[in-house]
Amino acid sequence: MKKTSERLLSVILAVVIMLTAVVPSFAYSREEFWENLWNEEYNNGVVLFPGSDNSEMNVSWYSETESTPKVLVTEELVFDNAKEFTGYSVAAPDGDFANKVTITGLEPGKTYRYKCISEGFESNEYFFETDANEDEFSAIYMTDIHISHDDNNPNGIKESAMKFNSLLDEAVLKSNASILLSAGDQASEGYETEYKGLASAAALKMIPIATTIGNHDRKHIAYKTFNNVPNEDDPVISSYVGSDYWFTKGDVLFLVMDSNNASGIDHRRFVKEAVKANPRAKWKVMMAHHDLYSGRLPNRESENELLRLLWAPIADEFKIDLVLLGHSHYYTVSNVMYNNEAVQPYSSTMTNPKGTVYMVSGSITRPRNDSDLGLNEEWIGFANTPDQQAIYNVLDFTSNSITVSSYYQGQDEAFNSYKIEKSTAQGGHPNSTPPLYNMFIRFIGTVYAMFNNIGIYNDLKDAGVEINFFEALLG
Ligand SMILES: [Fe+2]
Predict the structure, then answer these.
(1) Burial call 330-339: b when 16+ CB within 10 Å, e when fewer
(2) Which of 297, 441, 423 is closest to 369 using CA atoms?
């Protein structure tokens, strides 16, 4: 059993690291605190994921042995009367076991302390807070975090994780957000070591991260056992490491999509079911990995054209307000889009927009500097001047608006800010029935996804991964 002082270490470290994000002259350097946190937390990978709604929180961590994991949760300073939540553990590809527990029965405006226990392991104590007013909360949106294994740098994971940790601390201090939305490529190679690096961030013990599958997350199979997400779809065809899932916060329905998987039949059915299951959701925010409209990388336009054929009709039909994307590593915000056309210009306040706004943010650790850089000026309403700075975005939700503010690391003022206002759940969205040929496109996408999985299977086999052919084929 750990001493109380040891148990409190991570909480103290988390607070101090957050302080040092804005007070660089603090007695200890940020590097020293990061070193302590890394040594204390890296191996267990304790991390929060969103539950199905605000009454739940999902927890995941790694351990060396299989057991029935449990999380103790209390509103008090000691755990004597703590509630116990049990879950399950699954074998992770690198020899560990990934433990999954869902905490239920959470109430608004409370602070909960928790600790994770599995055979041979007892975590430090951490805490999280629930939103006091469920319809008014803030979220952080980042993409392409790219915690990176580097064959030529044994500290590659640690260094990229520290950069992410530092940026996330700054974003949390700025926003008081209760969730991090991450639009894919959390890892560069898809290794468990990289996901442990991601989970080492102090703030991810206090706010959940909603992750999206990026093309890099699919380069190995550790993502499949890393995450612990609610309402995950069981599709006909998936991309093997995960599927679409949804959750709500107040009156916002978040639809987290796997854009690696072209199975249009599955995606449309999933969104239809999620929307039907949440009839009171006023706002619909979709998150996926692949950039659709920016045109920043001209060599990807043929791929983007196909992706737009698949995704835009779904956003139109189900009246998606905002789509958060990544992949290109370039920051852009679209005009209001409907039927793959700009129907209303981007502006600082868009009231009852007649379609969907698509946003892409920059990478955290891998900013690009391409020589061949395009921009689709017909579709894109705002683009920053590409540079090497890390970006985070704060989304402030109220029952009538979503305000998005985008910041460069270390700068107090947002370099871009815009607001989407709606007076009703429908807002300005037109009613849309997809034309019949969309059904054919979705079917072709599903067939393509299955054959594409054969290529993924071969890639994984070449990388030394033990994987069943039929599991890989269907996902
Ligand atoms: Fe990326």
Answers:
(1) bbbbbbbbbe
(2) 297
Domain residue spans of the chain: 4-129, 137-421
Task: Give the distance between the most distant pair of CA atoms in the chain.
Answer: 66
Is the pLDDT at 5 greater than 50? The verdict is no
Distance 289 CA to ligand 1 centre (A): 9
CA of 319 relative to ligand 1 center, distance in Å: 27
Q: Is the dihedral of CA 13, 17, 18, 23 positive or negative?
A: positive
What is the mean predicted confidence (pLDDT) over 442-471? Answer: 88
CA of 235 to the centre of ligand 1 (A): 25
Residues within 5 Å of ion ligand 1 by Cβ? Answer: 144, 185
Give, as one character, the DSSP assignment of residue 423.
S
Kindly give the distance from the C-alpha atom of residue 389 to the centroid of ligand 1, in angstroms, as a whole number: 15
Q: Report domain 137-421's class.
A: alpha beta
For residues 254 and 270, give the distance between their C-alpha atoms in angstroms, rounded to a whole number.
12
Cα 184 to averaged position of ligand 1 atoms, centre (Å): 7
Is-contact 364 146, C-beta < 8 A? yes
Residue 430 pLDDT? 96
Between the CA of residue 43 and those of 64, 96, 114, what are the distances in Å?
A: 10, 10, 18
pTM to 2 decimals? 0.94
Class of domain 4-129: mainly beta
- How far does the centroid of ligand 1 lie from the alpha carbon of residue 148, in Å? 11
